[in-house]
Design brief:
Blueprint lengths: L9 E4 L6 H8 L3 E4 L4 H10 L26
């Protein structure tokens, strides 16, 4: 993040996980958007970044379709 962005830039992390990217972005004074599908990890991220963020939740449900693999017939 430090090498590829500047203070005030926006960092996007579509797979939040444990919040490492968000935590580092905050520490380096970058704006950030982090997305996480797991409520457990979402709560972990909030704790990790001290909860000092704008929280937006969506109750929208998504249907996850099975992704084709290299050997699936099309």
């Amino acid at each position: 993040i430090k090498a590829s962005s500047n203070e005030g830039d926006l960092v996007l992390d579509p797979f939040g996980g444990t919040g490492t990217t968000a935590s580092v972005a905050k520490r380096l004074r970058r704006n950030f958007i982090t997305m996480e599908i797991s409520e457990e990890y979402y709560n972990l991220i909030l704790k990790r970044i001290d909860g000092n963020v704008l929280e937006m939740k969506s109750n929208k449900k998504f249907e996850l379709k099975k992704q084709k693999t290299l050997f699936d017939k099309i």
